[in-house]
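Structural prep section.
Before we set up the soaks we want a predicted structure of the protein with guanosine-5'-diphosphate in place, mainly to decide which crystallisation condition to try first. Input record follows.
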Amino acid sequence: MKLGIVGLPNVGKSTLFNSLTKAGAESANYPFCTIDPNVGVVTVPDERLEVLGEMYHTKKIVPAAIEFVDIAGLVKGASKGEGLGNQFLANIREVDAIVHVVRCFEDDNIVHVDGSVQPLRDIETINLELLFSDLEILERRIAKTAKSARNDKGAAKELALLEKIKAHLEENQMAKTFSGFEDEEEESWFSSYNLLTGKPVIYAANVSEEELADDGNGNEKVQAVREYAKTEHSEVFVVCAQIEQEIAELDEEEKKMFLEDLGLEASGLEKLIQASYRLLGLISYLTAGEPEVRAWTITKGMKAPQAAGKIHSDFERGFIRAEVVSYEDLMASGTYAAAKEKGLVRLEGKEYVVKDGDIMLFRFNV
Ligand code: GDP
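Run finished without errors. Recording the tokens verbatim:
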């Protein structure tokens, strides 16, 4: 899964990104590392892995991971190709979800590109660029589809859909709030357009250190962002990028104390990762054994063979069945053998919908 960090210049994107990658760099067991400086990998905190690690006497723990891409340089006029505008927009097209950083902190030493701190105006500036870019895509698609629509019923139907989405965008509405689909075919066309304003968004309201403890409730600008986000079904999370950068330098013990001092339970980054998981409808299933204990990211509703395919495509192709025990059942039993004796380890087939925290063992034909 890939998340793109966007926002106007000087709002705290790089600060947030750097703290993410610094925190991520410590996750030693992560199986791949990246060379691209704009891409950082962070692991998804999951206490269950440590517990399983002890149960299975393994030191190798591989958490699930999310990739963050720092998409700097989005400015007014990007969709018209200003700056490296189009290139940035192309980068956004590749991500699964957007983290949109908005400045809610006041600091006279840090210049705002538009002269004052007004998060709603900032959001609108960025979202307009995304909208323009989407409109361009739709127009190109409409021109192409219109040609075949004269003697092709399918194309005519798609053309009508394209026109409806275009009208929606022209009213300044994000593609993700469009709901005029006739059937599933139209929904799948819609996904294939991969519109920027159709992607899930998390607004990261960057506040001052003092405003963190009450989750930004005392800051009117944050409230305004929350109100706005509701209208497009987006999430908001409150962060202080500067503090995150400091936290990222600390070890686990120091971090705990530091957070306690601030009256916080988890760092902003942890909250961000959890929010992204929720927003994208993701869950983790687990595999456990002596060689390693590991979390695998899947989408909610995924069936056992597709979940197995996350490990290896052979597992999906040759899927026979899965041995499954829930994390809770395993913990209550104490050992895998005891869980088996109690009948808590189930054999599930191709139609089984995998749940968060399922511990899975796949049987497959090669
Ligand atoms: P970007 O252009 O959006 O990537 O912004 P940067 O991350 O480079 O931040 C711009 C400036 O704002 C830097 O000088 C940061 O130190 C500062 N900054 C970032 N986050 C905060 C914050 O939460 N509070 C304050 N006071 N300054 C911040």
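Observations: DSSP finds 14 helices and twelve strands in the chain.
Flagged for discussion at group meeting.
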